[in-house]
Amino acid sequence: MKHLCRMLRPFLAVLFLVLVLAGCGGGKVTKAGSSFPDAYDKDDTWLVSWYICGSDLESEIGAASTDIGELADVDLPPNVRVLILAGGTESWQNDEFKDGALNLYLCDEDGLHRLEDLNDADLGGRGTLEDFLRYGEEHFPADHRVLVFWDHGGGSAVGVCADERTGNMLRLNDIQTALTNVYGSAPDAPPFEMIGFDACLMASYETAAAIEDYARYMVASEEVEPHTGWSYDGWVGALAKNPAMGGAGLGEAICDSFLAACEEEDVAEQATLSDIKKLPALTAAYDAYSREALAQAAHLSPAFFSALDRAAQSAENYGGNTREQGYANMVDLAGLARETQQQMPQNAAALAQAVDDAVVYKVHGNYRRRGGGISSYYSYDGDEDGFALYAEQDAALLSQKCLLYCMIYGEMPEEARDILAASPDTGRIGVLPTTRRNIFGMEAFEDRAVDVDRNGNAVVRLSAAEMDILSSIHCNLLYIGAEENIILYLGSDVNIDADWDRGIFKDNFDGTWPMLDGHPVYIEIVEEGDDYNLYSIPIKLNGRECNLQVAYSYADERYRILGARRGLEANGMSDRNLIRLRPGDMVTTIHYAMSTSGDDEDFTPVEVDTFRLGAHPEVRDEEVGDGKYGYLFEFIAPAGESALSDVAVFEIENGDITTSVE
After folding, report:
1. More exposed terminus of the chain, fewer Cβ within 10 Å: N or C?
2. pLDDT band at 430 (very low <50, low <70, confident <90, very high)
3. Beta-strand (E) ranges in 74-163?
């Protein structure tokens, strides 16, 4: 865990000196929208082209086979057919599909049957997608067409359909180019009634813009999808019963059946799915908003970027954006607009309204009720490689690329100057610099002095200029075991008494910390909302490393365990397999530790407690017990910049807390 060491190493020497001086639930699921009138004739023909990249979702849990089985149970009429291309996995968990080959099947009124034996090909390759689209056009004429991508998804920068054998995936540019090569540039009429993504994180502006000329509607999820995915007997069954429906009605059927399946499996709390129509008005509104923001960013003012980052932190974010989970870097676009009305008064409200107009139907779980239905890329972590992938995508707005470029690199690209001078928008950004200029001055926050007030609270004081630099302040807690020769990092939270008007920030530590069935855990704040927070806890669940997803409700002051899933893969893909905890599951808590003697340089992961879950697994705040604990304020600026204060030490004895600093 070198990233933890980079944050905490400068404070260890201070910590040792301080040691010497100190005496060494689930809620209601809601939906929005209404039924849509039929758009076509009941005798019209339909072809659903289903592009299944099985990946480890199939080889490990048979998720694709489950969905194919759902489809096979549907009684299709003669005018509705489903063309399937399936591959991209090491092994199939059914007796029908062949390993090491492309499986080309048709599901029609006669059931599911193989069409051809094809040589293996890369499902993460653009050429495979092109061949599949051409095959459907040449062999299966239809009045209306649907294209569905099935697999992992990673959002605007990463894309979809990661072939398990090759490691390749379809970026948005690949999908857009494949569609253009088959159907031409800007066809007179969209060839697809709907393009859908049964994958995570793909309900973004950039995804919609990439396919805009080729589909009347798009259905996708802002958040990581549960393993249940779409309900194929539900939505294909609805189309089979009523081939007169249009894309809006089909999207409604997909959304409703998806949510019903999530509820049945008890994985609906963070579920999202949106039905989005063509979006020229949204493009115009988003570009106007981004240009307004870019005009302010031109001054390279840390205060502006900090305000923007605070807004992004306040809006819903998706895919998990923490050090432990990895950074998907996807933000709810309407939420970002609403949170920046003061900074972008001319265009923020119009952008939020444009999102609302573009989303014709959406469903969401109780802990995803603030989202508008369309996300967009936002660099929470400032990762240059991730931004480079995003900047390569032609569908992303150049004005937005330039805005994030300014925040990350601390300089204005030439393309931004052209935009502000009302020059033509090329859509491309030049070569990215090899170094970045830090405009936030976080060095001034390193080792910031901590005081103790008369009530025994650890306190830091900041000037107005310093607060303008910051987007948020977190607290970090350490257990200091001098006798055990260990410093155990317990995690970070936002439980701080923060007075942003006066610049006074105090600890709220009361001697408790979140525990899983009575066992202390390492925990990270994922998202802070007005009525709930989301957290992530690294554990081993039955021997497999994953992150426990937890929500804390302010209304009843209780935690609710939502499930466990792995963090983002190295390729940026998210994990759809949300695992519900069961009584008797074996759990190992994972913390990060280093010695108090200074024999090691890095915080490293350590397995602390291994135990079986009880009959009703729960997370709740419990007393940490007597001992010494280190407390640091973490000052966070945009683009992943952060610094830590000096260490305050809490010594707990018989429940009494004594606070000391150097």
Report:
1. C
2. confident
3. 80-87, 102-108, 111-118, 144-150, 153-155, 159-162
